[in-house]
Amino acid sequence: MRKLIVVSAVSMDGFYDGPGGGVTVPMENCFGTYNLERIQAADTVLLGANSYAMFSSYWPGVADDSSAFEADREFSKIYNVVDKVVVSDHASPPPADHPWADNARIISRAAAPTEIAKLKEQDGREIVTWASRATWNGLLQHGLIDEIHVLLGPAALAGGTPLFKHPVSLRRLGVRAFDNFDTVLLRYGVLPPATQR
Length: 197
Description:
Layout: E1 4-10, E2 15-17, H1 29-40, E3 42-48, H2 49-58, H3 70-79, E4 83-87, E5 104-107, H4 112-121, E6 126-130, H5 133-141, E7 147-152, E8 161-162, E9 170-177, E10 184-190
Helix pairs in contact: 1-3
């Protein structure tokens, strides 16, 4: 069974973004370094509609951007070739000349739980998702998320969008500090619904 892993930045006070979505959690270069580690362990990326729209226009060109952080350039190279599953009722496939044209497929929100469950049963490496909060929170309700990796940023936003939409029980898998950075990685396993406290 393949694991579906969520990677998300969160503020010290538990927010995914700030009031009105206008303030994002401050992240240091360790965020890019850890994202590279995760995509190197994966062969499929899961995206919600908004993340797909943003990431498909941003990440393909980073690989050739000499001014970009080295880990981000390597991340971009891998991101361009791994399989991508987009959960959306309105998104369109990438155009034929887009780097993702041959490895991105779109599934409806209604079909997502069934399709993701089938995907997890296939042979392969990890499935990973960044951002896409609405999508992975929905899958969490269906017991399809295995791990949540939270990069705890060194700031409090004092309001905004909470990371979770519903109660969930977790078990700690590990804690990691990064040399010369204030961000801390917290890794949690999601308890099966029957064992939720």
